[in-house]
DNA sequence: TCCATGTTTCCATTATCGTGGAAATGTCGA
DNA sequence: TCGACATTTCCACGATAATGGAAACATGGA
């Protein structure tokens, strides 16, 4: 994933309504939800909802499929997975660390040295 | 984590420079980097850099500590961890699913049924 | 074919964010 | 105490995002 794409995905999620939509879809799973039902559950008017869904889709965070007159949206788990991976990529210079193993704090090997003269 | 906080964190990361800063800090690990060095590496002028670092700090994504005249910034791994957890929270209604086990696609139990009459 | 229903596009207004020079603030060493 | 250096605050301008009503665009059923 390149930075530009990651920024798009993060921007898509960085909005109250869109985050709520995404989490609703994540909770529902692959089954998905029709656009109308999303708008109903979250009290978002059609035009606004469509705008937000387009953003999420453009960012690769949701999939959409037509089902008759309905458009079913579902979370795209690979998309969010790739984003998460990107955020923690090359963590601590590639060494095992706090981000991957938050509990094993003893002896953080090579990468936990203080700055050359940091004491405060 | 509440939605409002998550939006703040996502907004903080949803910017080219800030994402670059964050990833630079993630790669460096707990050791952290002085503000000046960040600006140098990413070619961001002091005022702009300070603005972005403040955003990241406000969002709980980086920590800052004073070291003499320098201010050392480091990624706050708990912060990003909480955000990631929030994004996939209650995934597929709490059942094991695609998000947690992307490879086990057979028999996705209760949550992978099609919509009532979805065929397309 | 025509109507009802679901969804998207259009559009103009409002609000918020990003930028970076200059000045202010804080800290160290002499 | 003073000068040098690191970082932050102030500020004003330009750019971009969010909103939602109305109209347009699909689609299925009669």
Structural class of chain A: alpha+beta
Count every helix of chain A, treating DSSP H or I runs of 4 or more residues as helices: 5
Q: What share of the residues of chain A lie within helices?
A: 40-55%
Q: Shape of chain A, please?
A: elongated
Q: List the domain count of chain A as a whole number.
A: 2
Oligomer: homodimer
Uncertain stretches of chain A: 101-120
Secondary-structure element order of chain A, N to C: HHEHHEEH
CATH class of the largest domain in chain A: Mainly Alpha
Q: So, CATH architecture of the largest domain in chain A?
A: Orthogonal Bundle
Strand content of chain A: 5-15%
Strand order of the largest sheet of chain A: 1-3-2
Kindly report the average pLDDT value of chain A. 84
User: Rg of chain A, please?
Assistant: 19 Å
Total count of strands of chain A: 3
Q: Span from first to last CA of chain A?
A: 37 Å
Please, could you describe this protein's structure?
Chain A has helices spanning 3-13, 16-28, 35-42, 46-58, 77-87; strands at 33-34, 62-67, 70-75. Chain A has 120 residues and is of the alpha+beta class. Chain A is elongated. Chain A starts with a helix and ends in a 33-residue tail after the last helix. Chains A and B meet through α1, α2, β2, β3 and α5 of A and α1, α2, β2 and α5 of B. Chain B binds a DNA duplex (30 and 30 nucleotides) through α3 and α4.
